[in-house]
Amino acid sequence: MTPPKPPSRPEGAGPLARLRLFRKDIFRSQPGRLYRAWMAEMRTPISRSFLVNDPTIVSQVLREAPEDFPKANLIGAVLRPLLGQSVFVTNGAQWRAQRRVIDPAFEGGRLKAQFPAMRAAVEEAVAHWPEGEADAEPLCSRLAADIIFRTLFSRPITDDDACAVFAAFQAYQRSQPVLSPLALLRLPSLRRGGRFARAARAPIERMVTARAREIADGTAPDDLATRLMTTPDPETGRCFGTREMIDQVAIFFLAGHETSASALAWALWLLATHPQVQAEAREEARAELDAPSDLSRFPLLRDVMRETLRLYPPVPMMVRESTRAQTWRGRGVPKRSLVILSPWHLHRHTRLWDDPDAFKPERWQTPPPREQYMPFSQGPRICPGAGFAMMESVLALHRLLRAFEFASGDEVPVPVAHLTVRSENGIRLRATRRV
After folding, report:
1. 10: pLDDT confidence band, cut at 50, 70 and 90?
2. How far, in whole angstroms, is CA 247 from its chain's centroid?
3. CA separation for the pair 93, 314 (Å, rounded)
4. Which of 95, 332, 338, 347 is the most exposed place for a label (fewest CB within 10 A)?
């Protein structure tokens, strides 16, 4: 089965029809030609936006001159009620200072210390995974949330505060578009999801405050939260304060929970609809995976996740703003133009990929140029948790394939863009527990 993608915008659709489609789902509002175009422009009387698929320009924006293309303020307008001044929305000196503290916490050596907590969450999920048909999305969301809380705060998802954060984030995610049509017009966006954001941040504040007390009296566990709160900026010597830490925890949970859950659910569906690949992956999973050093023994599981992230990148669009005038492909790009990078379109571009809509893990035996693949972004702003995400995904696939055989349900999932790429109608799978 060819992995589904949403229908493109009907040719000849007028401005109001496009706006209605945009509000419902960004994918449906885009014309099909974006899967073969190198660049497209959208003009309004007060703004200009450019969607870019040319790998050379993508590299310029993300790798060669990232300071010329900071994150657009419209991203902060949508997410700031939840994320405050977290590393996801800041720019310039503030962002650099945050990364100097955050990056060391996600280095390979330190990630190894979080593997037992990650494994405990996965084994708990496998033990309670239902047989028969069920929607994989909420199951994967709960698993990813459990991993975050166990590795960040040494608490399982059954903890009261963890449950409260999980529920509030679920509601917030459903309330927010990945990109506001008003923002593209540079008009004020309607603030939505404020009460969900407050509901999520309150228990995070309680956990951060409690951890600060534990650090002060020497009883704090050696988890990611403790490392982040006790690691000084090597240039200034400052550590994250309580308010800063709440902001960072919010983005770790959003990025580490929503994106990982999305990728894992789509990976299971792709394996369910490609039984031969599933059988080969299960055969590979017969080998033991008990430590991070074992991950290199599972190249097919890794390539399944890479191909899943190509077809269903959890973050479908990224928005930057040009700080100076550019000329791209012979076209003038004025200062303050919005630059939209779309992993969704780039990863399925007909000029860059052979059979772009097909699920082919074997294509990763010869990795493509890095400029045409960016599920975690690229360059200095690449997601610091990319290694964490791949580790948990391969571990989860390993344990689930050993325990179950998966078949697709009767309904084909329809991708939609919220804050992450999810299915409009769920991802129905039939799980049969193996002896």
Report:
1. low
2. 17
3. 27
4. 332
